[in-house]
């Protein structure tokens, strides 16, 4: 175990801050100073810009966005599914009392997630634990248990893969699916036999609130929960799902609830990027569909705050806000100066946001850089996570090997078959970020899991040996120079899944409930 920091002497009039707070505040102060300096430099460049330069910038922006918009495919049904407060939900399955108490997962230095009772106090992911406790003194903070979360994530993936065999995991708690082919062939609708629950006990899903007026309750009664021992109501019912994407996504969320006992939210749009934005709109346990219509798309995009979009973090949003840019509509009012404000990669990200598409118009130059041998030299794929700072090398090695394997699964979901370079990201307890890399002499197939795990471990241990025994709060593994397999858009998994009559809450084609279904089986936490 690592030693706690030494006690700090303080005057009686000033309460002692929790461990880690000074580091965080110093780091935040440094970031503010850098932001102030950068903004001053950009403003000086803008003041020296000529009208001809600004006119050229505005024309370039308009041309790039127009090119991007030609890539819109309004017939696509891209879906982003996100488990709600994932780590916290899984901890509640292990200890149901935390369902009703403000609880977060992480440590005093950084929270990985917080449950919804805690969020009512303003506690949120990425917040230092000591700040969260100021907002909510009764907050319970639990340490991360990645072994448990990987197990729950696997169950989540198993459900989604039945709806789309090519499902792409983007971390443990979120995934992307494409149901376009399916919706085109959707029948009149589906029915699902299941049991819903109500009462003070929150251990089982789906809940009574998930039953709609289109569903049919067959019977109900009182039972005692076998998990927490509290009384609860049960409702044997038939859930009826309307044809089309709305009914299909509701069916997917109910299937996740039954098979994992976890709630999830979903966003549906014509691009994966917008689908991810949409999945946050009706959280928790909800869904939002952005209509596949150009006017609806433009209205939604222009009215949205920039900070909602993936890739626009606090640093970027705060920097742009200094110039009065908070929404996408604001961005359009600064087209002539945008080139001065952001880097080249940020510029193309922002123009993609305006256009509402996933990838640039010229993939060979701006996106994939894929060569004739099928190697994508411009894209990387991987995973990372924040945890309670530790210098325990055995723990860190276990985490990096686990992340290396998770990154492999994410890469496979993107159609990657081999990698040419491996990156390890390390964020120290001081918030300083470092990246180590290993370039391979030849492409390494993703089937060689042990080799990729060993290289990740070696990079980390060499870094630790060089830096000394310091606390680490984040680790990540990413793969680059990706060898790509031809992508298949054929989706057969959901059709066979839905057309196969089964018991225990599976979907069947518009048939009545023949017998009461058993209570759901949740993920094994042992």
UniProtKB/TrEMBL annotation:
One BP term from GO: DNA repair
InterPro entries: DNA/RNA_pol_sf (IPR043502), DNA_pol_Y-fam_lit_finger_sf (IPR036775), DNA_pol_Y-fam_little_finger (IPR017961), DNA_polymerase-Y (IPR050116), DNApol_IV (IPR022880), Rev_trsase/Diguanyl_cyclase (IPR043128), UmuC (IPR001126)
Record region (Disordered): 1-26, 361-387
Xref: PROSITE patterns: UMUC
UmuC domain location: 78-313
MF term (GO), any: DNA-directed DNA polymerase activity
Name of a matching Pfam family: IMS
GO cellular component: nucleus
PANTHER family, sorted: DNA POLYMERASE KAPPA, DNA REPAIR POLYMERASE UMUC / TRANSFERASE FAMILY MEMBER
Protein name, UniProt field: DNA polymerase kappa
Lineage, opening ranks: Eukaryota, Metazoa, Ecdysozoa, Nematoda, Chromadorea
């Amino acid at each position: 175990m690592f030693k706690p920091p030494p006690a700090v002497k303080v005057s009686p009039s000033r309460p002692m801050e929790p461990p880690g707070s000074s580091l965080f505040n110093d780091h935040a102060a440094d970031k503010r100073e850098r932001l102030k300096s950068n903004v001053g430099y950009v403003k000086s460049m803008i003041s020296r810009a000529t009208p001809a330069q600004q006119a050229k910038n505005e024309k370039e922006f308009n041309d790039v966005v127009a090119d991007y918009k030609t890539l819109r495919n309004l017939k696509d049904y891209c879906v982003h599914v996100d488990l709600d407060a994932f780590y916290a939900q899984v901890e509640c399955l292990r200890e149901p009392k935390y369902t009703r108490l403000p609880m977060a997962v992480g440590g005093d230095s950084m929270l990985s997630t917080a449950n919804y009772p805690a969020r009512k106090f303003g506690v949120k992911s990425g917040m230092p634990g000591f700040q969260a406790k100021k907002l909510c003194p009764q907050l319970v903070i639990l340490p991360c248990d990645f072994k448990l979360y990987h197990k729950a994530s696997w169950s989540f993936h198993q459900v989604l893969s039945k709806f789309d065999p090519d499902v792409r995991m983007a971390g443990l708690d979120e995934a992307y699916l494409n149901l376009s082919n399916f919706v085109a062939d959707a029948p009149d609708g589906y029915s699902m036999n299941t049991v819903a629950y109500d009462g003070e006990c929150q251990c089982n899903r789906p809940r009574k609130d998930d039953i709609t007026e289109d569903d049919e309750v067959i019977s109900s009664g009182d039972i005692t929960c076998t998990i927490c021992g509290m009384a609860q109501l049960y409702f044997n019912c038939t859930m009826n799902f309307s044809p089309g994407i709305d009914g299909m996504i509701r069916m997917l969320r109910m299937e996740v609830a039954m098979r994992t006992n976890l709630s999830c939210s979903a966003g549906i749009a014509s691009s994966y990027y917008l689908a991810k934005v949409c999945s946050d709109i009706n959280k928790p346990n909800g869904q939002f569909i952005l209509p596949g219509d150009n006017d609806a798309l433009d209205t939604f995009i222009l009215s949205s705050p920039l900070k909602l979009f993936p890739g626009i973090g606090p640093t970027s949003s705060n920097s742009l806000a200094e110039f009065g840019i908070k929404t996408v509509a604001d961005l359009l009012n600064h087209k002539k100066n945008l080139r001065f404000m952001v880097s080249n990669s940020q510029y193309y990200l922002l123009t993609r946001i305006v256009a509402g598409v996933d990838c640039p118009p010229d993939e060979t130059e701006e996106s994939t850089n894929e060569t004739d041998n099928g190697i994508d030299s411009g894209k990387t794929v991987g995973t990372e996570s924040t945890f309670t700072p530790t210098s325990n090398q055995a723990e860190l090695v276990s985490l990096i090997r686990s992340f290396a394997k998770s990154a492999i699964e994410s890469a496979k979901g993107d159609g990657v078959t081999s990698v040419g370079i491996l990156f390890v990201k390390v964020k120290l307890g001081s918030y300083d970020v470092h990246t180590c890399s290993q370039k391979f002499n030849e492409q390494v197939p993703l089937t060689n899991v042990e080799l990729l795990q060993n290289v990740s471990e070696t990079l980390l241990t060499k870094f630790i040996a060089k830096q000394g025994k310091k606390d680490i709060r984040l680790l990540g593994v990413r793969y680059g120079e990706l060898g790509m397999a031809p992508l298949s858009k054929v989706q057969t998994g959901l059709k066979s899944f839905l057309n196969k009559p089964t018991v225990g809450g599976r979907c069947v084609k518009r048939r009545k409930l023949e017998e009461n279904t058993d209570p759901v089986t949740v993920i094994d936490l042992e």
